[in-house]
Amino acid sequence: MHVGTTVERKSERELVVTRIFNAPASTVYDAWTKADLFIRWWAPKSSGVPMVACDMDVSVGGGYRVAFGVEGAEPMAFFGKYLEVIPNERLVWTNEESEDAAVTTVTFEDKGGVTLLMLSEFYPSKEALDASFDGMEACAPEQFEQLDALLAAGT
Fold first, then answer.
1. Residue 38 and residue 31 in contact, taking contact as beta carbons nearer than 8 Å
2. DSSP state of 99
3. Each residue's pLDDT tens digit in the chain (155 positions)?
4. Which whole-number Å values give the CA distances from 3 to 22, 98, 105, 115, 126, in the listed order?
């Protein structure tokens, strides 16, 4: 089963991305929670700006930090804390690099060997979502294609 990535506004402050992956929820969850896997798919290759660092403590109150950059330039970092962790089912984290950053929720719903993944970002204002929507609409399908390829390769 293959279904493309959808990116849509659910309200003035919420963005939702969905995709079905041909892998069990536990495998998809691992790709989101193990730094050695996450670093291989999260940065869209077309951007030309690879992820150069990824640290994750995937536990309630634990933090993450990812950095993107090219040689000779200062890396751009994104970081936050995990608010909720239910293995193979749900992750919730803050994005603390900006006052306009969203709280992200990712759910993993096992559908008999395939996984319905739903990513929701809740922004502090309509303006914050407006500023992020086009970038997310452009990047998420490529990111999820990269994740799909990683999963197909057997991670």
1. yes
2. T
3. 446 899 999 999 999 999 999 999 999 999 999 999 999 999 999 988 899 999 999 999 999 999 999 888 888 999 999 999 999 999 999 999 888 889 999 999 999 999 999 999 999 999 999 998 888 888 999 999 999 999 999 86
4. 10, 33, 20, 11, 29
Q: Which CATH code is given to the segment(s) 3-44+85-152?
A: 3.30.530.20
3 state SS of 135: helix
- Encoding tokens for residue 52? 């150069």
Single-letter amino acid code for the residue at 57: D
**In whole angstroms, what separates CA 83 from the centre of its chain?**
15
Residue in the structure block whose two tokens are 């395939």: 114
For residues 112 and 110, give the distance between their C-alpha atoms in angstroms, rounded to a whole number. Answer: 6
Q: Hey, how many other C-beta atoms are within 10 angstroms of the C-beta on 46?
A: 10
Closest by CA to 38, choosing from 20, 21, 50, 25, is 50
Q: Is the pTM of this model over 0.90?
A: yes
Sign of CA dihedral 26, 19, 126, 13: negative
